[in-house]
Amino acid sequence: PLQALIAEVERRWSPSPASATLHGDLHLKNFLVQEGTAVLIDLDTLSSGNPLEDLGSFAASLYHRAVLDGTPIAQVDELVARFVRTYASLVPWTIADRDVATHTAAALVNERACRSITRRKGNVVDQLLGIAQRLLTETATARDLMERFAASVSSHTAELIDVYYKTYRKQKSWAKSSVTIAWRDNSGIVV
């Protein structure tokens, strides 16, 4: 399951929508809040790069804290969604839920699960990986499913007969797309 999760993150990784100044270790302990003003501390990993990396890292830190504290994950889902909506309203580039989910899943694996192992909190690793998988599954588009299916078919001796792919371009949303695939397996059955 871990290898499949990593493969899915790598397949979905897309070029940055923009470049921004990144904190590099964005989590709640690196915020100081005083009189309604928040400032960041621990700036030793400051760099320039894909803003989705900090968004994903911050979301992963919230999920990690929820798992440790026993907070319902649905509450974190809503908190992350509100944070991303607010962030998206303040920047000139588009923030797609699918991309946030991909970067969050990557951070859950690379940062939070690994950190949990090294800090001897291995009992939360499966939960973190489960959250990562859920995020990828919930934001999977018809295109993602088609690519995943085509990869699985081509890895077997089967013949891909026809792919019909329809995108609702007016909504500009892969989530509102559909795919119909016909293929013949080794026994000659058309699916």
Structure notes:
This protein is an alpha+beta fold and 191 residues long. It has six helices and six strands; from the N terminus they run αββββαααααββ. The strands form three sheets. Strands 1-4 form a two-stranded antiparallel sheet. Strands 2-3 form a two-stranded antiparallel sheet. Helix 1 (2-12) runs antiparallel to helix 4 (97-118), helix 1 (2-12) crosses helix 5 and helix 2 packs across helix 4. The longest helix has 22 residues, at 97-118.
Largest sheet: 2 strands, antiparallel
Q: Please state the CA-atom Rg, rounded to the nearest Å.
A: 19 Å
Approximately what portion of the residues adopt beta-strand conformation?
Answer: 15-25%
Structural class from helices and strands? alpha+beta
Helix content: 40-55%
Low-pLDDT stretches are: 157-163, 167-171
Number of strands: 6
Tally of alpha and pi helices: 6
Numbering strands along the chain, what is their spatial order in the largest sheet?
1-4
What is the N-to-C succession of helices and strands?
HEEEEHHHHHEE
Straight-line N-to-C gap: 26 Å
Question: What is this structure, in a nutshell?
Answer:
The protein has 191 residues and is of the alpha+beta class. It is 51% helix and 15% strand.
